[in-house]
Amino acid sequence: MDNEIKEYTTPSGQSRYGFNIYVGKDEATGHTIQVKKQGFKSRDAAEKAYYEYKIKVLNGEYEPLTHKRYTMKDLFKLWSKTYKTTVKESTYATALLIFNNHILKELGNFYIDKLTIFQCQSAVNKWFEIAPKAYKRYIRYASRMLNYAVDLELIDKNPMKKVVRPKYIEQPTEFDNFYSKDELKKYLDCAKHVKYQYYVFFRLLAYSGMRKGEALALKWNRVDFLHNTVRIDKSVSRGLENRLYISTPKTRTSIRTIHLDKQTMNVLKEWRTRQQKEMLKLGYNFLSTDNLVFATYQNKPYQPTKTTDWNNKICKYGNLRHITSHGFRHTHASLLFDSGASMKEVQKRLGHSSIKTTMDVYTHVTKQSEQETVTEFERYMES
User: Fold this and answer.
1) Which of 67, 240, 258, 266 is the most exposed place for a label (fewest CB within 10 A)?
2) Is the pLDDT of residue 124 over 90?
3) 382 lies in a domain?
């Protein structure tokens, strides 16, 4: 039986277990009938399920899935149970939205054994019209589920594999979702006047390159004032039914320890003192380091969308050019490049799993840097 239980690694790097049990041959088609189960978090759980199915097979009580016709909605119910065990809650919640709002909306009532390439292509064309930047993600999810049906021998081929993907031609626009050094200084000056907490939050983003979800999940026990470092190992995420929870970050490389400048650390010290006084008035003991750096008056994490409100208030106060909360991460990258940091150094500090991500998103630099490059070239040619 040990040979029947197989361990495998998910795309996110987690260990899972599964098994196949031979049942026999389908008399109508001649196809092999198997019980194929996977997604178990432990070997013990896989073994328990293995024995349960093995007994059913030996007693002639197992009814193969192939004896029933499945619609895409039926298949989704089967597939989602397994998929849920292999990903984070936030990823599963996103997948549910995509299936309910797009995939099942177009294909849910089709029987999978009769689903054609033409029907898949018609759905893809509609997805492209609605969401030209995101529609490929819908294709990947639909194809992944249909591959699952192939593995279960419910269908012979995955028709989604043969669709033609419409090409989205993006209009070239100048990337400007970041601040220059002067713009950032002006923004932070305005933030101080609006609310000190807002100032601390956006300064931390701009001087660390943290994602807003990472900053909102940050606790004081991850801030080392002695060595001027911050440990980033959590992030605020949205789960099922819009539930807010704290989980591990996006990827393994997102877990990192970064150094911060002394002035930003002093700003955090000042904020901690102010926060302790404010929260004490509300009946919360914030002397413990096991508290959030940015907590609501109910001592809970902020909704990630809340930072948009903070940002809007600051921009309105100073009549400033608006960038998104994520734009402060872009700002940090741009200023790192300006200061002479290498692509590899920026990748490590931002927690990107691939340097390609760093290159794709942050190859831009500020206009000042571009001008300096031209000036240096001119000096070289004239020397």
Assistant:
1) 67
2) yes
3) no
Instruction: Give the model confidence (pLDDT) of 158-201 as tens digits.
Output: 999 999 999 988 777 777 889 999 999 999 999 999 999 999 99
CA-wise closest residue to 102 among 80, 118, 74, 125: 125
Concatenated DSSP letters for 147-208? HHHHHTTS-S--GGGG---PPP-PPP-----S--HHHHHHHHHHHHHH-HHHHHHHHHHHHH
Q: Do 342 and 267 reside in the same domain of the chain?
A: yes
3-state secondary structure of 11: coil
Q: Cα separations (Å) of 27 from 1, 23, 33, 104?
A: 27, 12, 10, 32
- State what percent of residues in the chain have pLDDT above 70: 90
Which residue, among 321, 338, 339, 332, has the nearest Cα to 361 in the 3D structure?
A: 332
In sequence order, the β-bridge partners of residue 237 are 245
Number of domains in the chain: 3
What φ, ψ does residue 249 adopt, rounded to 5°? -70, -175
3-state secondary structure 291-330: CECCECCCCCECCCCHHHHHHHHHHHHHCCCCCCCCHHHH
DSSP conformation class of 240: G
H runs (alpha helix) in the chain: 43-58, 72-84, 89-98, 104-107, 117-130, 135-151, 181-194, 196-208, 212-217, 262-281, 306-318, 327-338, 343-350, 355-362, 367-382
Q: Is the pLDDT of residue 368 over 60?
A: no
| Beta carbons within 8 Å of 288's beta carbon, 6+ residues apart | 220
229 and 332: one domain?
yes
Q: SS3 for 26?
A: coil
Q: Check whether residue 253 and residue 185 sit in a common domain.
A: yes
Identify whether 383 is part of a domain. Answer: no
DSSP state of 210: -
248 lies in the same domain as 152: no
pLDDT tens by residue, 234-248: 999 988 888 899 998
Domain boundary among 150, 172, 194: 172
